[in-house]
Write a structure and sequence with these properties.
Blueprint (H helix, E strand, L loop, with lengths): L1 H47 L18 E7 L9 E4 L2 E4 L9 E8 L5 E7 L7 H9 L4 E8 L8 H8 L14 E7 L8 E5 L16 E7 L4
Antiparallel strand pairs: 1-2, 1-9, 2-3, 4-5, 4-6, 6-7, 7-8
């Protein structure tokens, strides 16, 4: 009887140990599975955490189809020249060595976005006549980007202001000594351009000694349709 009882006890103990082993294995598997899922989700999350998207010319948002992305800044006092970017191409800048004191102009094909020409005209120590002649040669459908640097107005006369106004500018009528001005317009435009900023030279509000703060503008220029 003692032997039979011992055998039964042994069976019960072995069964209990086996049960504990099975439970521990199942629990460990579930723990491993849970940890695996956690790490898998973490890996997926990490793989999807990419840098913020970069848009053309560093714009804050992309332009719609059939639009040209642009970003531009005026000059800073008489020290740093203006910059103009269109469709991720730098049209004018100090680095490109194609900017100067006065008015800086870039002409762009309104259908293709191709750069056609860049010029700058000194409106402090230069002559306004070359600017007037240049403005008269601009063809219909041309997009015109203009940025001031240092002084862009002293030598302007009524004829030059009229020609610039015909490109869509409203601020050109009051542009004064050392004002900052950035503008995008076009030859043959029927309305006033929405792309224009102007800040007056005012000793009480100037950011720099003798000059106002830098202007910056970005946007999307619609392609010229036939």
């Amino acid at each position: 009887m003692r032997v039979a009882g011992f055998v039964k006890l042994s069976v019960v103990v072995v069964g209990f140990v086996l049960a504990l082993y099975v439970v521990s294995q199942v629990f460990e598997f579930k723990m491993d599975a849970s940890l695996g899922n956690i790490f898998a989700r973490s890996a997926v999350s990490h793989s999807h955490s990419t840098k913020p998207p970069r848009y053309k010319c560093g714009l804050s948002k992309p332009c719609p189809e059939k639009h040209f992305a642009f970003k531009m800044t005026s000059g800073a006092a008489s020290v740093v020249g203006p910059k103009m970017c269109l469709e991720d191409n730098m049209l004018m800048s100090g680095v490109k060595n194609n900017v100067g004191r006065g008015l800086n102009l870039a002409l762009v094909n309104g259908k293709t976005g191709e750069l056609m020409d860049t010029k700058f005209y000194d409106m402090w120590g230069g002559d306004v006549k070359p600017l007037i002649e240049f403005l008269k040669t601009i063809q219909d459908g041309t997009v015109v980007l203009i940025a001031s640097f240092d002084d862009s107005a002293t030598k302007l006369n009524d004829e030059a202001r009229k020609l610039l106004g015909e490109l869509g500018s409203t601020s050109i009528a009051t542009l004064g000594f050392r004002d900052n001005w950035i503008f995008v317009g076009g030859k043959g435009i029927k309305t006033k351009s929405p792309f224009e900023q102007h800040i007056k030279n005012n000793k009480d509000t100037n950011k720099y000694e003798g000059w106002p703060e830098v202007l910056e503008m970005e946007g999307c220029i619609p392609e010229k349709s036939d």
